[in-house]
TrEMBL record:
Organism: Onishia taeanensis
Name of the protein in question: Nucleoside diphosphate kinase
InterPro entries reported in the protein's UniProt record: NDK-like_dom, NDK-like_dom_sf, Nucleoside_diP_kinase
Protein's job: Major role in the synthesis of nucleoside triphosphates other than ATP. The ATP gamma phosphate is transferred to the NDP beta phosphate via a ping-pong mechanism, using a phosphorylated active-site intermediate.
Transmembrane region(s): none
Residues holding ATP: K11, F59, R87, T93, R104, N114
Subunit organization: Homotetramer.
GO molecular function, one term: nucleoside diphosphate kinase activity
Cofactors (names): Mg(2+)
Active site: H117
Keywords for this protein: ATP-binding, Cytoplasm, Kinase, Magnesium, Metal-binding, Nucleotide metabolism, Nucleotide-binding, Phosphoprotein, Transferase
Its EC number(s): 2.7.4.6
Length: 142
């Protein structure tokens, strides 16, 4: 197993519900370490760049509109198989299909307002971490 880094975003709905701490506890209990973090209110341009892979999809406008609707909490998680572990903690994209006990089952309302983002591959993780953090903003903790 490999130590990996993944990019996590607590989306505007979950920030608004005041559950950042509850979600951080889930990361920590799963063995993931927060090695970088910042709260930001995304501009339209920053949100569109982040989700550029979905540019042609019908939900792109709703997605970027939602992601700019309020502040988000962005973090880098580090640990064994961090990418898959974080995706498992999040649950399915549509909270109605998410397994009980996952972040989306517990905190999300809809496929649009679905509480959390996590990188879906090593390539995405590398791009997404660099999209938000410089090397000097990441603090590996061993
Ligand atoms: P995310 O990128 O936010 O972690 O979500 P994901 O990998 O589980 O899902 P993805 O396919 O990357 O889609 C990105 C976000 O777009 C919205 N979406 N809406 N209406 C739809 O069919 C639909 N499909 C995707 C979701 O909010 C999803 O999180
Ligand atoms: Mg995705």
């Amino acid at each position: 197993m490999a130590t990996e880094r993944t990019l996590s975003i607590i989306k505007p709905d979950a920030v608004s519900k005041n559950v950042i701490g509850e979600i951080y506890t889930r990361f920590e209990k799963a063995g993931l370490k927060i090695v970088a973090a910042k709260m930001i209110h995304l501009s339209q341009e920053k949100a569109e760049g982040f989700y550029a892979e979905h540019k042609e999809r019908p939900f792109f406008g709703a997605l970027t509109g939602f992601m700019t609707s309020g502040p988000v909490m962005v973090q880098v998680l580090e640990g064994e198989n961090a990418i898959a572990v974080n995706r498992d903690l999040m649950g399915a994209t549509n909270p109605k299909e998410a397994e009980a006990g996952t972040i989306r089952a517990d905190f999300a309302e809809s496929i649009d307002a679905n509480a959390a983002h996590g990188s879906d591959s090593a390539e995405s993780a590398e791009r997404e971490v660099a999209y938000f953090f410089g090397a000097d903003e990441i603090c590996p903790r061993g």
